[in-house]
């Protein structure tokens, strides 16, 4: 849509590859003393440190992971960074650098790529991240973004998926399911628009849902909150594919089972009302929706008093012995086995 | 081509995303003590070290950077790693880890992706690199590979593009132009094949050229050779876009000029004979061909005796004052200004 509305179009080939990278990155400044050299040499250089280094990468592809008919490019740039920072925070680390590679077809003018980078810059400024490298090339079709995030943590602070112990409490930050429902609202509006382009949608009832889908925030704050509470998680993961899929990763790697309580799963009121409207089960949305970018972690049961009542966290269950399996206790007090129904990028197309 | 010849086809969606990643990475072992945790958590974890960390990334796209009609997938995987390691070596560093993200359309069966990963694994085994992460997703069209390489170097060993000084010698490893000519040979054979699929090409005269295009090696050895010679380069870059483009990066960042000598540019005999056959100027091929992945560096003139006669290196010119510009002294002893004619990925399509 941006392409049609934008009066100014500068062809990408006018600038050339190095001109384009310079043009896009010149307004980025460095926020971290660990960044010795960012963009502009064969490789970026990071300072030696007594911390461990965390590395994670994600690839977002037009038509698979995003739809530009309702995802503004600035939001896409922001979200591509968030998705990666979230993985660093899920190790209980501090994110410090990113590289961003993009491939773009000629249908995008320079002004569109500037929008994308404006979103990347906003994310870098807000989260104190340095853009230290990347690659810009043409694609034969569509757009894709590959981001690698680099962070650090003291060895004793790093939290893996592997450490959950029997009787540990299962805790989640924020609330779940809103991003998935935001996507449903946007998909519906896209279809309405295709039928009647003059229809003016009233999206006031869905603002939180749409924001969670288009402009998610990674939970940078959780590390600090847990430090203040003097709680060290025994395992942690970020919720990108839905609660069900993520707790399965923790349980399989930690060789434990779990019991989740349906009535403890945190849901925003907009999620509950949208589920009624779309006639979807809200628990299913929380379990399988994905893209929430909240953190799921386990803490020793001795920390119950420190966590309970904290407005940032919900205790949603506890870890059991491996042979008890992975179960959800429903509101009707029935135990049902959890199934992985996370979003599978390979099933698309 | 592999798709047509392969009798066994396993659909990617049968495995699912996590199954696919597990399947592809299970045979990879860790080579470096700096890798604390590779694939399998939210982020990889690297050990704290007293060295600086080097980070570089490159994106390869089907139809832009490679043509699967003559690039076997195993070679593609190998080359995608080499391209990134070369950037780490160009900082005078040691490459230790990579992340690999791939997007693949459904036209590729599992067996094709296994071939790609066989090439990545061969590169990892040969160069002692650990695969520590990545992302695997579907694409709406074609294949792409995004690799990020991570390395390390002592602070005092890192060589930037910025340090070239007036009177420094300009040195290049290996020989230049072969990869570009290999591409010309392969393109010609592709056209012959399209006209006459039964034609059996005789490529004996081009084996070196084709190998340089399809299976380039990054110059891991140069760091050790220079250490033995007790030579510390003042600036360094890898030759991915052609000698002309790379010396321009060094000169512009170091704020110096240069004088290159046409008769000193190292060329393999196959390059010379192929240039005659294709009626191309061999100097132009070396200056603008690209994809050689040799290292271009500058050393103090005091090191002349240490470098001269070394079979790994050719002294091809020297650094001058900035106001003298960038010049090539031809075999006819004429000075002509250098122009950047490096390969520009944005001009494709």
Automatic annotation (TrEMBL), chains A, B:
Binding site for Mg(2+) 3: 42, 87, 238
E.C. code: 2.7.4.16
Record flagged with keyword Acetylation: no
Molecular function GO terms recorded: ATP binding; magnesium ion binding; thiamine-phosphate kinase activity
Protein name according to UniProt: Thiamine-monophosphate kinase
Residues annotated as binding substrate: 65, 291, 343
Miscellaneous note of the record: Reaction mechanism of ThiL seems to utilize a direct, inline transfer of the gamma-phosphate of ATP to TMP rather than a phosphorylated enzyme intermediate.
SUPFAM superfamilies: PurM C-terminal domain-like (SSF56042), PurM N-terminal domain-like (SSF55326)
InterPro entries linked: PurM-like_C_sf (IPR036676), PurM-like_N (IPR016188), PurM-like_N_sf (IPR036921), ThiL-like (IPR006283)
Gene3D superfamilies: PurM-like C-terminal domain, PurM-like, N-terminal domain
Pfam families: AIRS (PF00586)
UniProt xrefs under HAMAP family: TMP_kinase
Every PurM-like N-terminal domain range: 40-152
Annotated binding of Mg(2+) 1, by residue: 57-58, 135
Annotated metabolic or biological route of this protein: Cofactor biosynthesis; thiamine diphosphate biosynthesis; thiamine diphosphate from thiamine phosphate: step 1/1
Catalysis performed (reactions): thiamine phosphate + ATP = thiamine diphosphate + ADP
Sites where the protein binds Mg(2+) 5: 241
Key words, A-Z: ATP-binding, Kinase, Magnesium, Metal-binding, Nucleotide-binding, Thiamine biosynthesis, Transferase
GO biological process entries: thiamine biosynthetic process; thiamine diphosphate biosynthetic process
Family: Belongs to the thiamine-monophosphate kinase family.
Keyword Metal-binding annotated: yes
Function: Catalyzes the ATP-dependent phosphorylation of thiamine-monophosphate (TMP) to form thiamine-pyrophosphate (TPP), the active form of vitamin B1.
Amino-acid positions noted as binding ATP in the UniProt annotation, renumbered to this chain: 117, 134-135, 161, 240
Binding site for Mg(2+) 2: 58, 87
